[in-house]
Amino acid sequence: MPEENNLEKLSVEDQTIISNKELKIWEALIPVVALVALLAYNIYVFKDDALSGSNQFILLIGASVAAIVGFRNKVSYKVMIKEVAENVRSTTGALLILLMVGALAGTWLISGIIPTMIYYGLQILNPTIFLSACVIICAIISIATGSSWTTSATVGIALVGIGETLGISMGMTAGAVLSGAYFGDKMSPLSDTTNLAPAMAGGELFSHIKYMSYTTVPTIVLTLIIFTILGFSLDTQGTPQINDKLEAISGAFNISPWLFLVPVLVIVMIIRKTPPLIALLLGALMGGLAALIAQPGIVAAVADSNELTFQSGYKGVMNALTVDTSVTTSNEELNDLFSSGGMAGMLGTIWLIVCAMVFGGVMDAIGALSRITDALLKMAHSIFGLFASTVASCLALNLTASDQYLALVVPGKMFKQAYEDRGLAPENLSRTLEDSGTVTSVLIPWNTCGAYHSKVLFGYAGATAYIPYAFFSIISPFMTLLFAAFKIKIKMLKETKAAKI
User: Fold this and answer.
1) How far apart are CA 313 and CA 291, in angstroms?
2) Average pLDDT of the segment spanning 149-177
3) 115-141: average pLDDT
4) Beta strands of 320-467 (E only): which ranges?
5) Helix (H) or strand (E) holding 84
6) Residue 326 pairs with which residues in a beta bridge?
7) Per-domain boundaries in the chain
8) Which of 26-35, 283-292, 325-334 reaches the highest mean pLDDT?
9) Cα separation of 481 and 496, whole Å?
10) How many CB atoms are closer than 10 A to CB 94?
11) How high is the pLDDT of residue 182?
């Protein structure tokens, strides 16, 4: 993920990919088939509550099936546990960021920062252009920060709130937010994945960004066209009720443009390469300070006190940072919007990520990830087949390893030599890794990225309503395949004899 620090990125980049030549492809696929079948039935039974806990256990059952396959192929329990530990360790940064985002959301609520964003956003953003504006705003923030996660945790939360108030579905708004966020994430030189992909392919950063723009720019243009069409087709009959909502917000909070200083400072810190975890922690603390200054009555109420004292102020801010808090307004529609779970609200998502990492770790330990990727590589009998196999491998790794980094690292290592053998420049591989590995991670609910964005934008893990509207992530893999099929911008190695395409 682009939000984790460089040490973690390097640790994943250097990770050994375990190969097990005794493992047959049908054996490697058994845990995958079992997991998909069990998840499908579990979702059928539990519907939207599936990721409240039952799907997490299904991931552990999938890991158990993989372990049985491993035992049959002479893989020791110690090796499996070691890989699980390595996988869980690699998500340390992501888990801590989740906790900090929960803390930040709590203090930004009681300080009035998020309500202020919504208050002014309602007056500026017209429903017709709202979705397109979400894409553009989030693209700009994400390019500046190099982080789709930070974009969701700051402007993303506010935009989803504005959209809900305008009567636009949360899923549609979240899809627009993530489309812009992942465009910026791909194109920013500050992004970890944008640095990791060329490192895996043996390319150079800015050459990778330039070459990636050939597929990424048409994809974001198509995405903007779709959201513009959706914007004109929206039913905006409820829009006149905005005045009532503005009055409800201003009646519950002290609204001031000065509150924008906190999110601006967080974004500046990220741009200046402050580690995201530190920037979010400072953002949460600044939110608490802003709450004490701008919303003393709300802080006292959150602490179950009638007046603000040192003790009630401390308790109110700590409650916002760590547990469920809410602010009641005169408008019932806004009451659900103005609530936060703090750090405690993120524990369900952390549980999901840990269980997903257990499954991915066992799959890696038994050699299944390497075997599946190798089988896809052997199916590549043409240059287009090579691109298609890379795309399929990235999607498979996002589905099974449940981690965006591994979806870049494993195919990157496995396919690098094949691209060189066909006289293809490393930019071809790095671009394909990003087009199919980076952006599709958010489409998998139990992937670290899917779990994170669901929790941040919807307030609970497993909210998959945005998936049909994450057009940028959906279109990207098809765009890279389209370019490969029609031999558009297929760069050849200058040092080798150009192969005929």
Assistant:
1) 9
2) 86
3) 85
4) 325-326, 339-340
5) helix 77-90
6) 339
7) 6-93+346-485, 104-345
8) 283-292
9) 24
10) 25
11) 94
